[in-house]
Amino acid sequence: MMPSGPPPRVFWTSLIFLLLACCLLPTGFPKRVELAPLPLWQPLGEQLNLSCLVFGGAPRDHLTVVLLRREEELGRQPVGKEEPAKVTFMVQPRREDHGTNFSCRSELDLRSQGLELFQNTSAPRKLQTFAMPKTAPRLVFPRFWEMETSWPVKCSLDGLFPASEAHIQLALGNQKLNATVASHADTLTATATAKTEQEGTQEIVCNVTLGVENRETRESLVAYSFQGPNLNLSESNATEGTPVTVTCAAGPRVQVMLDGFPAAVPGQPAQLLLKATEMDDKRTFVCNATLKVHGVTLHRNRSVQLRVLYGPTIDRAKCPQRLMWKEKTMHILQCQARGNPKPQLQCLQEGSKFKVPVGIPFLVLLNHSGTYSCQAASSRGTDKMLVMMDVQGRNPVTINIVLGVLAILGLVTLAAASVYVFWVQRQRDIYHLTPRSTRWRLTSTQQVTVAEELS
Q: Domains of the chain (ranges plus CATH)?
């Protein structure tokens, strides 16, 4: 059942357009419109020609093609009379155009004929842009590479866009390395760990590919074999007086030197013979090995320590045999013993077996006086020596006597001074004035016997 009411506008427009196409005007929709295929990768900085293809459509003087970037109109041109019609646009791609869809839209404008604007849009095509620097990748790795040893390799390239879509590959000779790749901003970096089993000159290759271009760096490395040095002792824990052989050896072409004495020729070992003594305990032997590779001298050292087992000895220079100390003062009994294994040292008072501390401070008392037997003992034997300790006490009776004598001397001195002052006073005449007459007469206060002169 047909719906009631007037036919829709679209129906009438289509009907009129068909009538014009069939009877009146050579008019028709374009069969299709296409955007010609884009380059797989478009270098930034280069102009890009985008072509729109229009199949059919009339009248051509009313037919236009529009180039679109997403929904943005970049340009429009009329369609020529060739079939199919080709319209070309010039575009300068930008970084932000990477991954952007472009399309073509045909517009048949019949509004001047009393009709409408008829549009048709092609399927979009995605544009991929890129930028690749002219410089080569930077390779970082050891120029001299020891066989059977792992070494890091790093390669990087700056100025890439988009760096995340670039590909980088590291190889050692014909062996591809398993690299870890990272991109940051416009830089792409690959790091890997490599190992070689082949001696001699080899090649490290770093290749970076982006878009339709690539950059490559090839550099040489030298792989070498450096065996040793091996440093051995015939006995690492030797008893005092036993012979010990020290041997330093390395691989072919390696020159060794043991404690400053070189081997006769490269590849030969160096040896040192000695009889172990107390002075050799904890002695360190050093083996130096050198290898020349392509004019470069490589060095490697190894050391070993000799332990000599010997009996204990008390150091007489650091353990005085006689000590004189004051009572109630702090002192240290500075006695030391050497030996391997390390001996135990203790000092006991003869008779009482009283133990005095060794090497730590202690308060000296009167009962510390006496003779002490100091003994150092280990599994290798013992060593003894006697130490005399004389502690001088503080005697209060002597102090009182001294104070008493000083007091008596003070009293005697005071008395002598008083007598001297009195005697001086007696020797001095003192006169007084007696008013008996108008004339002054001197009268002595002392009784003076005057002998009258016989007339």
A: 9-130 (2.60.40.10), 138-224 (2.60.40.10), 230-307 (2.60.40.10), 311-392 (2.60.40.10)
